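User: I'm writing a short methods note and want a consistent example. For Diguanylate phosphodiesterase, I'll paste the sequence; you return only the structure tokens, no commentary, since I'll be parsing the reply automatically.
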Amino acid sequence: MGHMRGKPVEAGFGSPLEAAIAERDRGTLGMVRTALTRGDVVLAYQPVLRAGSGGVAFYEGLIRILDETGRVIPAREFIGAVEDQELGRRIDCVALRLGLQALHAHPGLRLSVNMSARSVGYPEWMQILRRTIRHRPETVRRLILEITETSAMMMPELVTVFMAEMRDKGILFALDDFGAGQTSFRHLRHFSFDIVKIDGAFTRNVDADADNQVLYEALVGLARHFDMVTVAEAVETEAEARWLSAAGVGCLQGFHFGAPIFDPPWAKRQTEGQAAGRRRGPAGGGRAQGSGQGPA
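Assistant:
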């Protein structure tokens, strides 16, 4: 046992709080590891709509895991613990594989999936992508890879080279959570993102918040300068949607237009027999039963 100011604390941790956080992360890692082993990792799909027309521009496939009770766990509850672990790379592999399977099964679909810049150097992830490029090149032309600003800035040179190679294959790239970090303006010109997804913190109450309006107008202007399509994240009200459309935002995404679901409309366009066989949702098994129509 280590000691600090006369009080015993667990060796290797500076405080009881750090020990508690480490214990929580161990539990999260175990939950993710179990879900991967059982195949209880799924994508939930949320539409991204064109501002003005309201038509669907593309869907985002959001990673979810199912715990041992069947509870749906969104990425925000586990991704921080696994991001710098091999488990994070394995999660990225499953997300990419499921996304590519959906694209292959639905030729009219355009889909984005999330990835970490670290996965560019992970052999299995790259093999999945390159194998699809080789055997189903038309599929990857409808793929959008989303990289968070924080992840991209960790290894900008690697990301830049990877993006240049994959854009030649028809893959589009989206910068996720733009504006959340502190290096956006300084580094944006070094990348060639096709889409910029503006962080939801700027969207909240944007119709009434003068500060958010100024920030949004600056971010939209910057994206337009670099010829990137803008997506407003976390749109929750009609008033926000109207203001964003008037401000020139290209696309809108958020609960106002639909929660992430396991059984999106394009997945229902199949024969009645096929639909009956999928009532439990994708890859979720019986524990996901009933979740297909609701938020994920």
